[in-house]
Amino acid sequence: MKFKTALTEIVKKPQTFTLFTAPMGWGKTRYIWELLESEKKLILFSPLRSVVDELTQRDFVVACERSNFDSSLKRFISMDKAILVTTVESFPWEYLEYLLEKTDPICVLDEFHLFYEWGQSFRPKLYESYRLLLQTGVRILGLSATIEKEHLNELEVDIGLSGHSSFFVNIGNFQLQREPKNVIRISSDQLINQKLLFYCHTFKEGRLLVFVRTREQGRSLKRFLLSRGISCSLCLGGEVSDFMKNEYIEKKRVVISTSALSHGVNLENIRRVFLTYEPTKYLTSQMIGRGGRFGESFNVYMLANKSGRFSVLNNLKEKIQLLYYQFLNQSIGLWIC
């Protein structure tokens, strides 16, 4: 029996929760459409508005928004096979039991780790909605590439309280479908910034994706690069949908982003990924996973000064490199302290 066929047989069992983890770029979204061939109705909950906007252009999709949910639900119910795509905030929860009775769907929770990561911090609606689904007994499929062990432990407790049968199918948690050619760990903030500026000016074989910690850092870097004639774009939280629309029109050579572009986007020809700060483990993996999404070879440069693994010799090498890149950047007019 083929793997996907076997997975589908697990997912379709009554009152089951299935967590499927696979490498970034494996094709988890494509699998949802394959699942539709045997299960005629799916409800896809995504934490990411950009994913919802992108999926609404695909076959068999019904977009669910608060402004038109009445007509959307009628259309979803009447179609022979359909995927209702929504965020937890847009979904009309007062109609949940009615939908479950009429369509017997499988509920797909995309980027499932975010239902814990974000749902237990700044977006509690994610975790609350997931817990509500558990209480109904509906079949649930969680999809993720990066779920932490602590959340797996919490998941085990939540499932135990719900009465669901649970299955964990893992073919690559915290793995990439395409590994970077090189991962260069740098302990100095100054050195990673100087290398970044140098590559922004000299690297022409592809595009650069730069992750920064704060919105102001992103704006400041964009202003500086534009003042030096370097083509760049900036994406901040809440701007992903607009960014992707502009991306289809014109692809800038340098893309600057907060963590906004770490999930659910496929950017073409990303050959250099810079992490100018040290994010959490799952965010680090997701950010690195934005490189090489279309099979391109790519390198990663990441700040790693908290690891404590750098020798005296390595620190000396970095000091020499810093002087070298400062000299190069000053000579081409990219000097920055």
How would you describe the overall organization of this protein?
With 337 residues, the protein is of the alpha/beta class. It has two domains: 3-170, Rossmann fold; 182-331, P-loop containing nucleotide triphosphate hydrolases (Rossmann fold, 3-Layer(aba) Sandwich), CATH 3.40.50.300. The chain contains 13 helices and 13 strands. It has helices spanning 3-11, 28-35, 49-55, 69-78, 96-103, 113-117, 124-136, 149-162, 189-202, 215-227, 240-249, 281-288, 312-331; strands spanning 16-21, 41-45, 61-63, 82-86, 106-109, 139-144, 165-170, 182-186, 207-211, 232-235, 254-257, 270-275, 299-303. The strands form two sheets. Strands 3-4-2-5-6-1-7 form a seven-stranded parallel sheet, sandwiched between helices. Strands 8-13-12-9-11-10 form a six-stranded parallel sheet, sandwiched between helices. Strand 12, helix 12 and strand 13 (299-303) form a beta-alpha-beta unit. Helix 9 (189-202) crosses helix 13. The longest helix is centred in the last third of the chain and has 20 residues, at 312-331. The protein is elongated and about 70 Å long. The mean pLDDT is 93.
Search tags:
single chain; 337 residues; alpha/beta; Rossmann fold; 2 domains; six-stranded parallel β-sheet; 13 helices; 13 strands; 19% strand; elongated
Give the topology, please.
Blueprint: H1 3-11, E1 16-21, H2 28-35, E2 41-45, H3 49-55, E3 61-63, H4 69-78, E4 82-86, H5 96-103, E5 106-109, H6 113-117, H7 124-136, E6 139-144, H8 149-162, E7 165-170, E8 182-186, H9 189-202, E9 207-211, H10 215-227, E10 232-235, H11 240-249, E11 254-257, E12 270-275, H12 281-288, E13 299-303, H13 312-331
Parallel strand pairs: 1-6, 1-7, 2-4, 2-5, 3-4, 5-6, 8-13, 9-11, 9-12, 10-11, 12-13
